[in-house]
Each structure stands twice: as structure tokens, then as C-alpha cells.
Amino acid sequence: MEMGLPLLLRASWLAGILPIALASLPFSVLHPVREVVMSFAKRGKLNTSSPSQKFTVPQSFFLHFYLVAVVWTMFLVVSTWSYAYSITVPMASQSLDYSTIASHLTGGSHMFSIHKPQSTSLEHWHLLWRIVFLLLMMEIQALRRLYETIYVFNYSSAARMHVFGYLTGIFFYTAAPLSLCSLCWPEIYGYVVRVATSIIIKGKTHESDIKYDWWGLVKPFTSLGWWQWIGAIMFAWGSIHQFCCHAILGSLRTVSEGEEYKIPKGDWFDLVSCPHYLAEIVIYGGILIASELSDLTVWLLFAFVFANLVVVAGETHRWYLHKFDHYPKSRRAIFPRVY
Description:
The relative contact order is 0.14. It is built from eleven helices and three strands, in the order ααββαααβαααααα. The chain is an all-alpha fold and about 350 residues long. Helix 1 (about 5-25) crosses helix 2 (about 30-40), helix 3 runs parallel beside helix 6 (about 165-180) and helix 5 (about 120-150) packs parallel to helix 9.
């Protein structure tokens, strides 16, 4: 039961990766698969069909993705952070013996036994705070993308995306944050249910005996390892460049010279056609590194992001080459000098 959610999420990511992988293979027999995948994946300038066309929605509906992501991820951040803090207090108390700590960690769960070494509970404690760190990174990403959607991009009324692509986006921003905390989800869910029940029935929180303080809420982050900080640096690097590239793309929508579209220039655009996709891969690569490369679910999340963006980048690059006769020949689709 405890592995049910991770297995379900892993199966979902594999189900998304498989058709993309098949569509990428250079075999003519798989051409129909590629056509179907690309019809779902095309958006923006790659899909400027008539608004009356069936099964498409405006690309401006991207806003829905980030609203869902911000609200859902914030819920997971608050829930996981509160739960992690609630077990930090008894672990910091020298008067409590190990059996009490283990019992509090698991809420009576069979996941730990009093016969297991104390290092097991400490590893689990570090796992919880690592998950909080990952969720905070995801929340920062969602907030920035929400800001960009409202204030940076100026979506064309002709830009559309397939409704399946829209539903995939909603699924992604629901499943991605959940994937980051799936290993501890049974405990987090149980904690939220207990607190909600206490509030509804007793009119007070289940953890009313715990004194919250700002330092206690952030101190555990000081014990994070170099995996987390390297991942955070990589995440920040990708985020800065993605924001810059999105600002460049957004500025192209404001041209008043009557030209429908211009060749984007500046930042990583001087190297590849889709630097914002490359930056997104860097961002999720940072999240993967911050997870210590230890969770298969996070690996599959990254693989889905990678596969999806590489395929769309290739199609976008071909669009640029077809659209502009003097498009820079040195640019690649998404990886400098490679592809």
C-alpha cells in the first residue's frame, strides 16, 4: 500500500515517455505514431490553427497549469513542512528515548521498529526535510512561470494547443510535485487527516502542544548536504536563463513593424533555437540532483521532461529553418553543437 502511489506515478511517467520515445525512432513504420504525438505536442507558433478547430484551446490556457501548480504545490509544501517540523521537536528532545521518537516518526506505522538502529530514523528525518527542499524548488518554479504567463508573455489569439496537451499539462503539474514527496506520502497524508480531524472535531490542532518558532522551521535546512546545494545552484542557473529567454520571446510579440515573427536573439538563443527548453531541462536536472538521484520516480519525472522538450525543440527548430531563409546555421535545436 505504501508503494502504491510511487508505482502509479512511475507507470504514468513511463506511459508518457514510451510514445515520445517511439515517435523519435527513425523508422517509417512508426510515422503514424509520430504524427499523433506531434499533433498533441504542438503549441504556439507550431499550432496556429483556427480557433474554431475542434479539440484545441488557446495557448493562454497555460495560465491554468501554473495556477494548479502554485496552489497544489503550496499545499504539499505546508503539509510536509509542518509534518517534518512536528517530528523535529521530539527528535531534538534529549528526554525522549528512541522508541518514542520512532513512534512519533511513523505515527504507529510498521515502517520502523524499535529494534532498528537510530540512524534509520535520522535518515528518514533527513529524507523529509529533503522533500520539503524539493517542493520549495518546485513552488518557486511554479510561481515564476505564473508571473511570466501574466506579465511576460503576450500570447497570440491564433496560438492554440491540443486539448490533450492541455490535459497533459494539468496532469504534469499535479503529478510532478506529488512525485517529489511520494515516498513519504502515506505519512504526510495521515498527518494532514489527523490535523484536519482534530480541527473539525476538537476545534484545535493535533500538534497544539508544539511551540512553533521561525528558527526551528528553517534550522533543519542547515543540515542539508552538498547534493541539495549543488542542485539548488543548478536550479537557479536554469531559472535565470529561462526567465531571460522567456523575456526575449515575450518582446517579440510587441513588434509594431508589421512582421509576424522575428528571429530571437540574445542569451542562449545565440546557441540553440529553444534555450528555454534547455533551461527547463537544467531546472529539473537540478531538482533531480537535489533528490540525491535516489528516487526512481524523480528520475522518470526528469526523463519525461527531457523526452518531451527534446521532441518539441526539434520540431520548433525545423519551423525556424523553414520560416527564415537566413536562419543562423550554427544554431542547434536544444543542445549546443549536438542537436
